[in-house]
Amino acid sequence: MAFRKKAKYILSREPDIVIVPECEHPSKLLFEADITKPTDSLWFGRNQHKGLGIFSFSKCRFRVLESHNPKLRTIIPIAVSGMQYDILLFAIWAYNPQDSDGTYIEQVWKAIHHYGNLLLDGHTILVGDFNSNSIWDKKNRESNHSNVTKHLSERGIFSAYHIFHKQIQGKEDHPTFYLYRHRNKPYHIDYCFASSDLTKKIVSVEVGDFEYWIQHSDHVPLIVEFDLS
Questions:
Q1: Best exposed site among 117, 155, 174, 228 by fewest CB in 10 Å?
Q2: End-to-end alpha-carbon separation of the chain, Å?
Q3: What pLDDT is attached to residue 218?
């Protein structure tokens, strides 16, 4: 929310691409004068105060694929150009309260099946707020977090955080979300999944510090650096 007031904090890290769930509409993004302006951007949503923003602060340029399924409102397949080679980026905010099949991880489950053929080509990243963790698996429901990660791994796509920090799904040492901004209510629900050709190029994976970021949001940033040179 109110990304215009928070952009300078994440931009101090000089990101190439920023994915911002719960992002206000671009018409409201009146950045302060001394803030770097995005070189390209996309926004999706129905609520002018809470949508999904995708911003480039580099040479990267975005093109939404024609295969985009608008029913999967805020899971967006994007061709990213401007680097040494193109990337297929799925920007994700797993939230659709109007879907009777499920609001959160069910959206990701539907997306990875709808876009199944695209997940086989490599140079692929799925990143954002999945609103899920295997600790909330419903064992009688196929579309749970563990089955999403299993389905992706079978296609050679893995969580950058879990690989880099040698973590197990559901037992993460670094929370990305603090319910009601309470330190004693931590969860790991934000992810960057990447195809195996890209996981080999991971330089670092950082989860933001609670003390610094909690004044700005109930989420802390997940920052993943790839060497794509």
A1: 117
A2: 34
A3: 96
Pull the structure tokens for residue 82: 């401007």
Kindly give, in sequence order, each residue whose CB lies less than 8 Å from that of residue 71, ignoring residues fewer than 6 positions away. none
Which of these, 133, 129, 141, lies nearest to 191 by C-alpha position?
129
What is the identity of the amino acid at 63?
R
Structure tokens at 49: 């105060």
pLDDT for position 113: 97
The residue written with tokens 């950045």 in the block is 31
Contact 213, 176 (CB under 8 A): no
| Residue whose tokens read 């004068």 | 33
* CATH of segment(s) 3-223: 3.60.10.10
* Sheet strands (E) in the chain: 17-23, 40-47, 50-56, 61-64, 75-81, 87-93, 124-129, 157-159, 177-178, 186-187, 190-195, 202-207, 222-226
> What pTM did the predictor assign?
0.96
Which regions in the chain score pLDDT beneath 70?
none
- Structure tokens of 73? 């409102």
